[in-house]
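Quick start: read one record
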Amino acid sequence: MMVAAQAFQQLTIICDEPRELEVSRRSSRPPTSDIQPPTSDIQPPTSDLRPPESDHLTEQQLFEIWRGQRFPEGALVTRQGVPVRVISPGRPGRGPGPDFRGAAIAGPSGVTLKGDVELHVRASSFTAHGHATDMAYRDVVLHVVFEDDLGEDTRLPGGKVAPVVALEPWVARREGEIRHWLERPLLWMEPCHDAVLRMGADGVQAALDAEGDLRFDEKVTVSREAIAAHGVEQALYAGLLEALGFGGNAAPMRALAEAVPWRALEPLARDAIAMEALLLGGAGLLPSQRGYAGPLDGYVVELEGAFARSGRSAAAMGVDAWKLWGVRPANHPARRIAAAAALLSRLDHPSRALSAIAAAKTADAIALLTVNAVGFWSRHFDVCAGPCLLPLALIGRSRAIEMLVNVVLPVAASTGDNTLGSEARALYARLPRPAAYGKTKFIENALASMEVPLRITARRAQGLLALERDWCTQNGCGRCSLSS
């Protein structure tokens, strides 16, 4: 078949930041009914993606075809000959997991099936890539491939199967038309792609501020409940630990705050090593608790001794509660616990974090929660690991902003002190954004389609998260506060 050599010679693939684009709208929580994507004649800039050098579509081209819905009706047919209609293509995935999340498809009966969509050049790649045993792929409802080299439906982890749609038979019949799939305008664009044109930059920023305030109010409600149940010190302490559980360890960090509450640490507030030993021991992460028999750094030996003297010889948590693999060294839970101990010993009491609100400069408020690594932790990420190169910070600027936004400021607004609450909200509005969130990058890309710069603050970044959670992931595209 000469698809690549002939049919693709003149194609131009239209794309804008592949793998990260889409959005939704708030007027009330979106209904669960299906959404028919609107059409648009507006085309984003072209990319430099090359035509394939074989007679197969590439996976990137499959991605672009699916994302823009650039195929005619009738092109999607399952192995059993059942035509598939796309109600919503879903949102591009990020990181490990299916290529598109939250899609909605239907067959001739009209019954809507919602779930994920995975794309491959060959159907066999699903198993070859390890997806068949990865529970992240258990909700795949459609496997779109170029070549069905297995001749069977795709078996998913958990026992279900997903129908396979192969494009090769259609291409074999119409290879002359394939170039037009990629040359034609996008049939699906995020409804917020022209928000700046419709609302102006100020209007979009105001909408994001409003969404960010709603998300902040939710955090205030949670903080108020935590204060009522456990007091301000424990509420702040548990929140700070949870905020440090980046990379999949947030829940275990909160469990650690319950297993080793602040009242157990308070007598050690000025002894960083004793506090760190108690936290690591309470987490079950000391070498003796993990059956580690290798050589130990002198500092780790000191931690083991301090924990033994604490009288809490039995680990409150098991090591299996923690995610130790698949996390970056800087996010290893042992290093994050060390960061918590260093911060808490410097603050003396968690409530001193509230003094960030009275800081003369925003930078000073952020600096109050930043911690640089010294000694052992400047070159180790775990008590059972050798030395390695690591970032200077145990708690960097971005994480400090996250802790202010998610813990300190909501607690301040929950104390009942109106002045403190007003100052907390004022600081929230001034804070710069932390590192960009991968899960909301597709919204930012859509908003940037008019090439008008938007200033994204921490408050507006929270607004993006609210949109992604409440609309983009709920088949709510077209009804959020940024949609037409």
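Residues 195-230 form the longest helix (36 residues).
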